[in-house]
Write a structure and sequence with these properties.
Arc Repressor Mutant, subunit A; globular; 2 domains; about 220 residues; two-stranded antiparallel ribbon; 3-stranded antiparallel sheet
Length: about 220
């Protein structure tokens, strides 16, 4: 049976898995390092602003579920945290590197298309192409002990469907698809606004250059 995680719990677990792969020399994580990882502005959706107290409370809740372990250095009295969510001797969930990368990105960013998963996996895993991502997604959906990921209905205007993890309970696929569509439209609008601003800046620059040239010509 899959654990049912809150948003804060998915963020903490996702960060612990991510940092164990990306910065193994700094893993396990201290409370300060874990809080910073949870509140990163990049590679996170939604962007959060958790206090150390909130992160520590989340850790205690995850400990009760046996998904996180605390390691204490008695000399420095510093606690560090290790995930027991997947790929450890204590974990019910065992996955390969490609599947782990997908799970991590879904925990940290929410629903994603295969193309987004491939682009955003970064150093977690290198996918050869989108078909390589789909192979891993299918494996996660067709596990003998039950799926870890669900495919959402494709939203209008998008080439591919998004996929979502199942670690926060059953997914209302229609509601999730509507949310993904709203998010995609918002990103598209931000992109259009950014393109328009860049175009205006370029036109202003060209106009200033033209005025300068006309001024020089008139002076001569």
């Amino acid at each position: 049976m899959l654990p049912v995680l809150s948003l804060n719990e998915t963020r903490v677990i996702g960060c612990l898995i991510e940092k164990s792969v990306l910065t193994p020399d700094q893993y396990p994580l201290t409370l300060n390092a874990l809080t910073n990882a949870c509140n990163q502005k990049s590679s996170r959706d939604p962007v959060m602003s958790l206090s150390q107290g909130e992160v520590q409370h989340t850790i205690r809740e995850l400990e009760k579920k046996q998904l996180v372990r605390t390691e204490e250095n008695f000399k420095s009295r510093t606690e560090k945290y290790v995930q027991r969510f997947c790929d450890t001797r204590y974990s019910d969930i065992q996955v390969n590197a490609a599947e782990r990368a997908i799970i991590t990105v879904l925990l940290l960013r929410g629903a994603q298309t295969p193309g987004e998963l491939r682009a955003r996996s970064g150093r977690l895993h290198t996918f050869a192409d989108n078909d390589d991502v789909l192979t891993a997604l299918i494996s996660l959906m067709e596990r003998e002990n039950g799926p870890l990921v669900v495919k959402l209905p494709r939203t209008p205007g998008r080439k591919d469907s998004s996929y979502m993890h199942l670690f926060s309970g059953p997914v209302d696929v229609e509601a999730a698809a509507a949310s993904a569509a709203e998010k995609a439209q918002s990103e598209q609008k931000r992109g259009s606004s950014s393109d328009l601003a860049a175009r205006v800046t370029q036109l202003e620059s060209e106009l200033a250059e033209l005025k300068e040239r006309l001024g020089i010509a008139a002076h001569d």
